Amino acid sequence: PQICKGFELGSYYSYHGVPAHEYPVEFIWEGPDGSEILFVRPIFAGAAAFHAVELGSIVPDGETENPLVPGSARLDPAYRLADEELTDHSPFYTNDLHLEPDYDKAYGIYVKIKEAAAAESTTEHLLISEFYDSQNMSPHLADLVEEIAKRETNGDQIKLSTLSDYLDALRENVGELKRYKGEMVYPAKSGWAFRLFQTLASRMYLKQINREAEYLLTKWAEPFGTFAWLAGSRDFPVNEMDYAWKKMHINHSHDDIGGCSVDMVHEDMLWRYRQINETGRATLHRTLGSLAREIGTMEVKPGEYRVVIFNPLHFARSEQVELWLDMPEEFVSENLIAVAGDGTEVPCHVETISRDKNVTVEAPLSICPYVRVRRAKVLIEAKDVPALGYAEYKLAPASEALSSEATDLCCGGDWMENEHLKVSIENDGRLTLLDKSTGEEFSGLHYFSDDGQNRTPNAAWTHCPAIKDKLFTNCGREAAIDLVSQSDLAIRMKVKYNMQIPVGLDMDNQTQCCSQIYINYAADERSPKLIEIPIESILTLRKDSKRLDIETTLDNRAQDHRLRVMFPTGVETDQSCSDTAYDVVERTVGRLDEDDWVETQRAGGVQLTRPVLNFADVSSDARSLAVIVDGLPEYELLGDGERTMAVTLLRAFQNGRVDPDTPTPPERGSQAQGLHTFRYALYPHKGSWDQAQVMPEAYRHNLPMKVVQAM
Hints:
Helices cover about 20% and strands about 30% of the residues. By secondary structure, the protein is an alpha+beta fold. Strands 21-22-25-26-35-32-31-28-29 form a nine-stranded antiparallel sheet.
């Protein structure tokens, strides 16, 4: 409702996720801020009712199930390209646009639909919609409406209209309506409108690069482009932003960002995302550079460096900032001090220094020679960087590293701790996390769980395990633990996991299953052949930080499976919370009776995963834990005794129909094979998510500050 109100729209028409078994066709939908709109759903919770009239009026008797019959009117003429075995690439093509409707049959079908529509509606205005997205519009559409109107004898006015005219008429006649407040993610008890949010984990690489692009435009390029324009240092990048947003909107069409089309579609999306990110980065590069020149107040001598740190968030922040500093070879120093604009020294640590690098100095006219530098990874403890603002620091050589303020940051071979947390790593890589502020200990955290993904007709939209599925984890398998780096500011440890899962499904044992329009084959179980999945996680604990940052890289070598990272919370609750575009939504753990809900039968089981933007949280009076995610939009709070939080890392599936005799080529993108990197964090806390400021902590994790090295 808030989105609609922002565009001055008073009505909304949809069907996925609508509680159609409890609400009539027309009702009021209320947003979290109180915004209200008239919500209209189609009858039967579907959107192509009149297509049934069209189809029934032209399909000859006896051809409903099998159109490939001798002398079929729909097969004359029909052809297919016969130089390939792959049937999906060369179906039969025909043309049924010439078929004349049987108007009496059409009227009979219409009457049944009208009666059902009247039973579900609260006004005399009935919408029998023709919003079918898979076929052409009938050339006889207007004639069908006219002929049906001729046959109606009870005085009903029947006309071919538009959605906007229907909504206008509805608003004039609608009376007191039921009200609904909350997400539209309700399962379908009957009818056709199943939910589609299992696509949240389809082609996870798209979800990750999309979040990166959204943040780049909305949190960086546009606001800081505005600041540079206001400062008079640059014009606002109108053309660049228009170009990037046009590409973004193309990628946001539902089957594109849903990740449920074919490789060719999504390869084109990746090209657009590259264009978005290159455009956004180039714009931001020039914008932040020009701002850094405008606001410079510190003088630097040879061997000293000026850096400007920019904060994209709406609140001030004090935290560690990572930067890569280029030092000319003659001025390389392994120890640096950082001095703020007011002369205050802040902790600074050189973590690594590269070997020689050649970098260029680029100017519009002059050609400059390569400069030999050493690139240092530097940590700075930035203090009080203003909201949507900046802080300036001078880095200068020091005889020895400046010691940080007193800190409890320390580590051993398989543990590390700071002022707030202690992290212990078990032999198999699972973590025990002690929250020192509450004394609560979370054990068995961060293991990996893998189940099968069947090759059903709707695999792109829903997670459906093998008929006899088997779960695999890394629990009990020895992990390798190494210290990566240690300083007064941060400790990093590496955990290498050894996980084996089935190579795919057992395609020698399949069961035929049917969807609306095609036959498919689902596997009875996963393959007995196992393959190793290398997984490596970098755990970072920073000075004075209340969260544990984790970056996990893995090489997916298997097919047809779902891999999740698991966090047993031990929180006694049936509720979880996660943030959405305009709200933090509370969701209840619970299962549906599969016999009473048509969606569970269509989707192959109960779908309990939920959407998330930046964090998912479970809390009680005794203990609370938030899982912060960066570009991972799907989680589930399990109904097990440990109330385990499961975050989906990838869902690998075969897109398209599978014929055991003439298989189609594998969709490489949908199977998600290759290297993947995921960022997330653990944030134990006291009280609820809002009391513990989980949202700001999630933004700090997902939107690190950017740094400009300026002369």
